[in-house]
Specification:
The complex is a heterodimer of chains A (about 80) and B (about 550). Chain A has helices at about 15-25, 45-55, 70-85; strands at about 1-5, 30-35, 40-45, 60-65. Chain A is globular, with a radius of gyration of 11 Å. Chain A has a single domain (about 1-85), classed as Histidine-containing Protein, Chain: A. Chain A is an alpha+beta fold. In chain A, helix 1 (about 15-25) runs antiparallel to helix 3. Chain B is α/β, with parallel strands linked by helices and about 550 residues long. Chain B folds into three domains: about 1-25 and about 150-235, Phosphohistidine domain (Glucose Oxidase, domain 1, 3-Layer(bba) Sandwich), CATH 3.50.30; about 35-140, PtsI, HPr-binding domain (Enzyme I, Chain A, domain 2); about 260-540, TIM Barrel, CATH 3.20.20. In chain B, about 45% of the residues lie in helices and about 15% in strands. Chain B has an eight-stranded mixed β-sheet with strand order 1-8-7-3-4-5-6-2. In chain B, strand 5, helix 8 and strand 6 form a beta-alpha-beta unit. The longest helix of chain B has 30 residues, at about 35-65. The chains are: A alpha+beta (about 80), B alpha/beta (about 550). The interface of A and B includes residues 15, 20, 54 and 83 of A.
Chain lengths: ~80, ~550
């Protein structure tokens, strides 16, 4: 299992648009990809779950990936987070 | 007569019948289903059809109102394919042995409740999107679908609020205007209404009643008012207001697509001044040849902290893309004096107009400046962006700016981020100092743009905010005109071009003078573009 911690810097947080783009990105991989904020953990391939995190600027999220392509998945989503959030 | 007041989203005056749109408030019945496998297939088919519809709406919105507005339909598709949502529906069908309609409605209620419970206004607003996508499936299951509004005559649409898929399907020819009880100026409805150029008033609240359905009314999008059963006097006033508005629109029809050329064949560009990315629609409607002044301050003034590079990049990119290859001249941060943002922590000044402002802030707080330049350069890969710098008084300032710009370019090259190598840079001519050294300045840049408001204030030493000085203030003062002539000659001697972006640019009494001076471009408020074009075309 691979993981990565990230603090949201985007002012709007994970609102609808980046949530949608994040789902698209996660869907490219076979691995189980999860995002955790505080006690709440959601599947990164499900838009409602991600929006339900209500992650805002300054919030820390923990990204985990488990599966055949976990390295690639973590690398790509880390890149995505840095560029978009 | 009943007068209702709300918040205007778009101007215009229209008179006609009200149609109170009642959303399909059908009762969802729950019934027992024996063959749940078949019921799941029924749901899956409806979902597939909904996705086809959403793809169609996305295409239509892309064409009509651009990517920014269209994106919502793509997000709706993702919502319909969300596993939590789908699993919930299928689970209800199978476990409770019930019909798809009931499963969809129940799931929608749960998701709506989740969004409503969030302590964030934006997320609470997303409950509307859940309702919208669920309603779409319910419509398909009910065998409805297709256009929701069918209008026989021009109508003012009243509703509690409208969702994007409802507004985008409207037959624009038949809709006179919108009146809604709720909604915000950032709601999808408001944004779409503005882009569609339909007068719209939101936030009318409970005063807007269903019983007004079929009533004769006037919608005045300029004042945010609706007059139901207007009395004769109001009707007369409103008809006059409408006639003035129509005349403007007629002018637009006649002059749209025509060239900005005098009778003897002299050409001039007429561009738009804008203060916000959302003004681009207005600029294009009025046939702007480009954006001559995009005031970037709103990015700073609307925020409580410094806008990030990405935030700025998105805005500049959107404007450049929406202008589709037409020139977009963006002025760097011009804050200070009468435009203040608290987080800049600018000290109180006795004489702010002569103080720490605009380029002086940028050259001192270079990190703020570099963030903006980086965003601008990145966006330059997506359209024809030019950058101009305000409040220049010395050649060294320009050289310093160019050095910083080069540092930013080098960073982008290292990071492998594309930008336009041919990007033009220009200077705002606002101070008498800049005028006097304009020959030197002209060698450093690609263009000048005269900011006549500040140039007049600094030349005549008159504070424009002080009403006691009105008698002394002469916008056509020969000193100011001589200055403009001088800078025009300086830049033309270098074979480069000059524009005017202050209020004087839209002064129709001055159009002929500017043409004689050889000014290459006038940048005016979008509403003035066609009037200036008319004036140019009437000039010898």
């Amino acid at each position: 299992m691979k993981e990565f911690r990230y603090v949201i810097t985007d002012d709007l947080g994970i609102h609808a648009r980046p949530a949608g783009l994040l789902v698209k990105e996660a869907a490219l991989f076979q691995s189980y990809i999860k995002i955790k904020k505080g006690e709440k953990e959601v599947d990164a391939k499900r838009i409602f779950g991600i929006m339900g995190l209500a992650a805002k600027k300054g919030d820390e999220i923990l990204l985990t990936a488990e599966g055949a392509d976990e390295d690639e998945a973590i690398a790509a989503i880390t890149e995505f987070l840095k560029a978009n959030l | 007569m009943i007068t209702l007041t709300g918040k205007s989203v778009f101007g215009g005056v229209e008179i006609g019948k009200i149609l109170f749109y009642k959303r399909n408030s059908r009762q969802i019945r729950r019934w027992h289903v024996e063959d749940t496998e078949n019921e799941v297939i029924r749901f899956e088919n409806a979902k597939a059809e909904a996705i086809v519809q959403l793809k169609g709406l996305y295409e239509k919105a892309m064409k009509d109102v651009g990517e920014e507005n269209a994106l919502i339909f793509e997000i709706h598709q993702m919502m319909l394919e969300d596993l939590d949502y789908l699993e919930s529906i299928i689970h209800i069908i199978k476990n409770q042995q019930v019909n798809a309609e009931y499963a969809v409605a129940t799931t929608a209620d749960n998701f709506v409740a989740m969004f409503v419970a969030m302590d964030d206004a934006y997320m609470q607003g997303r409950a509307t999107d859940v309702k919208d996508v669920s309603e779409r499936i319910l419509n398909i299951l009910a065998g409805a679908g297709g256009t929701i509004f069918s209008l026989d005559e021009p109508t003012i649409i009243a509703a509690d609020d409208l969702v994007p898929s409802e507004t985008v399907q409207l037959d624009k020819e038949k809709v006179l205007g919108f009146a809604t009880m709720y909604g915000s100026s950032n709601s999808h409805t408001a944004i779409l209404a503005r882009t569609m150029n339909i007068p719209a008033i939101i936030g009318l609240g409970e005063e807007l009643r269903e019983e007004y359905d079929g009533a004769y009314a006037v919608i005045d999008g300029f004042d945010g008012k609706i007059y139901i059963d207007p009395d004769e006097e109001t009707l007369k006033l409103m008809k006059e207001k409408q006639a003035i508005d129509r005349e403007k629109k007629l002018l637009l029809q006649e002059l749209k697509g025509k060239k900005n050329v005098t009778r003897s064949g002299q050409k001039i560009h007429i561009y738009a001044n804008i203060g916000n990315a959302s003004d681009v629609g207005l600029a294009l409607q009025n046939d702007a040849g480009g954006i001559g002044l995009f005031r970037s301050e709103f990015l700073y003034l609307e925020n409580n902290t410094f806008p990030t590079e990405d935030e700025q990049f998105q805005v500049y990119k959107t404007v450049a893309e929406n202008m589709a290859g037409k020139k977009v001249i963006i002025r760097t941060l011009d804050i200070g004096a009468d435009k203040q943002a608290t987080y800049f922590n600018l000290p109180h000044e006795e004489n702010p107009a002569l103080g720490y402002r605009a380029i002086r802030i940028c050259l001192t707080q270079t990190d703020v400046f570099k963030t903006q330049l980086r965003a601008l350069l990145r966006a330059s890969a997506y359209g024809q962006i030019a950058i101009m710098f305000p409040m220049i008084t010395s050649v060294w300032e320009v050289r310093r700016i160019k050095d910083i710009l080069e540092e930013v370019r080098a960073e982008l090259r290292t990071d492998g981020i594309p930008y336009n190598e041919e990007l033009e840079i220009g200077l705002m001519i606002e101070t008498p100092a800049a005028v006097m050294i304009s020959r030197e300045l002209a060698k450093e840049v690609d263009f000048f743009s005269v900011g006549t408001n500040d140039l007049t204030q600094y030349t005549l030493a008159i504070d424009r905010q002080n009403p006691k000085l009105d008698d002394f203030y002469d916008p056509h003062h020969p000193a100011v005109l001589a200055m403009i002539q001088m800078v025009a000659d300086s830049i033309h001697a270098e074979g480069k071009w000059i524009g005017i972006c202050g209020e004087l640019g839209a002064d129709l009494e001055m159009t002929e003078t500017f043409l004689k001076m050889g000014i290459d471009e006038l940048s005016v408020s979008p509403a003035m573009i066609l009037s200036v074009r008319k004036k140019v075309r009437e000039t010898e």
